[in-house]
Amino acid sequence: SLEGFTHYMEKEIYEQPSAVSNTIQALSGFAPEAYGFNAPDFFKKLNRILIIACGTSYYSGLVAKYWIEKIAKVHCNVEIASEYRYRESVPDPQCLVVAISQSGETADTLAALQHAKNQGMEMSLAICNVATSSLVKETEAHFITKAGTEIGVASTKAFTTQLIALYGLAVCIADIKNRLEQSKDYILDRLSEIPSLLKEVLSHRGAIEEWAQDFSNALNSIYLGRGQLYPVALEGALKLKEISYIHAEGYPSGELKHGPLALVDKMLPVLVIAPSNSLIEKVKSNIQEVKARKGRLYVLTNDESILESSTKNFHVIQLPKTHEDLESLVYTVPLQLLAYITATIKGTDVDKPRNLAKSVTVE
Ligand code: F6R
């Protein structure tokens, strides 16, 4: 039931603090057993990770690459399942194949997994929201995200819980390989703050409603982010496209000058994900590039100097501070809300957007 919400998507956005909290619990303090690997030997011998997924699940994989390489110091490739399955790639039997899927029934993801197995890559892990799914049956090990049933076609709580599962995987591998720079308890405490931060983000709905009014009149938009916030920009743009039918393009901020800057004029909303982290100075200069061309800026930040410089065409929402590694979780939620509210203003069928299915079981 909708429990007072207007749409399932809205309900599922608001369920994220508890879905994320339940998924953090399921990490069991970063124990390999949480992923179904009883022998730590398994993680000791792996030297590479290949992530395969589609759509939103692919974007959680892109965030995971930042974590797996930074925290576990293991090479990580992320591939779109429909590309990987038909591509001649170089197999590596020491590689762990991680298939990410909300439904566990996505045809391309299942086929990509089979393709990897046919090439001799036997070690496989599913990050999946449905315990009884084909994907879980076909993988050696699995972690079930605790999002609960997701009904809205546009994925929300499945994404943030996948992020938790993948962050946990990076920490778990780093621990087994003796590469952790802090204690597991410390890392867990920091991670455990995320549910309350997500609640705080959800309380900014009023400001996001103002942005949504502007977005609902746009035909196009650009979303920018750097580092792990680049895939968050991709995911935010996908949400807007799917349910509001407004074209949105996610871009790594540093690529702005290499093409999309040509699109910027006073009509174009440019959304920038700009937390005060090690890349903030770079992002500030990207903001200036847009400002100089009179683009309409919408900035999510916790940086004081950006907050102070907001003007009529430079809209800013202040988000809570968190550790740099966990920013993807905090900055995803306002983008989901923005897409959701924009779509409701446009009056689209939010839970069942045109031409889309919840689970893509055919190619
Ligand atoms: C986006 C969306 C799709 C799915 C994709 C993969 O909101 O819902 O892009 O993420 O079809 O689905 P799963 O995760 O079930 O494999």
- Count of runs of 4 or more consecutive helical residues: 15
Helix percent reads 40-55%
User: Are there runs of 5+ residues with pLDDT below 50, and where?
Assistant: none
Structural class assignment = alpha/beta
Care to describe what's here?
This protein has 363 residues and is α/β, with parallel strands linked by helices. It has 15 helices and 10 strands. Strand 4, helix 7 and strand 5 form a beta-alpha-beta unit. The mean pLDDT is 95. Fructose -6-phosphate (F6R) binds next to helix 4 and helix 12.
Please summarize what this structure is.
With 363 residues, the chain is of the alpha/beta class. It contains 15 helices and ten strands. The strands form two sheets. The chain has a five-stranded parallel beta sheet with strand order 2-1-3-4-5, with helices on both faces.
What labels describe this entry?
10 strands; single chain; alpha/beta; 363 residues; binds fructose -6-phosphate; globular; 16% strand; 15 helices; 5-stranded parallel beta sheet
Topology at a glance:
Blueprint: H1 8-14, H2 16-26, H3 41-45, E1 48-53, H4 55-72, E2 75-80, H5 81-84, E3 95-101, H6 107-118, E4 124-128, H7 134-138, E5 141-144, H8 157-176, H9 184-191, H10 194-202, H11 205-215, E6 220-225, H12 229-244, E7 247-252, E8 269-274, H13 280-292, E9 296-301, H14 304-308, E10 314-318, H15 327-346
Parallel strand pairs: 1-2, 1-3, 3-4, 4-5, 6-7, 6-8, 8-9, 9-10
Helix pairs in contact: 2-8, 2-10, 4-8, 4-12, 10-15, 11-15, 12-15
The protein binds fructose -6-phosphate.
